[in-house]
Specification:
Length: 119
């Protein structure tokens, strides 16, 4: 495990997620779970399996942290309540999809680094 790549990737995913939300571009927030695993996979290097594992961990952890922070921030600073009971299934499906996407882009990041090193 490359802990530096994991930590940087998770932090990048969370920062990008909230950056997209703060600019009212919530529909683009999925890009945070594409860009961060790609960069984490690129930092990691190595083989495809390592890239997939790192990308999946980055997306999974980043999405969990982002969702929890969003719920905490909205519950603290907003007059509206977030009712998670109705949305739990949607959140679980979204996290699974983000994890699969992250694994794919972690692989692409590793392949990009391997290709760059060959040239």
């Amino acid at each position: 495990m490359n802990w530096k790549a994991l930590g940087f990737g998770i932090l990048l995913a969370v920062v990008l997620y909230f950056m997209f939300l703060s600019f009212r571009l919530g529909y683009l927030s999925i890009l945070s779970f594409i860009i961060a695993p790609f960069i984490g996979g690129y930092i990691t290097g190595g083989n495809v399996k390592i890239g997939a594992i790192h990308g999946a961990i980055i997306s999974f952890s980043g999405s969990i942290i982002s969702i929890l922070l969003l719920v905490i921030l909205v519950s603290t600073f907003s007059t509206q309540q977030i009712i998670l009971g109705n949305n739990i299934l949607f959140l679980v499906i979204a996290i699974i999809i983000y994890t699969i996407i992250g694994a794919g882009f972690g692989i692409i990041g590793v392949l990009a680094k391997n290709r760059a090193l060959k040239q």
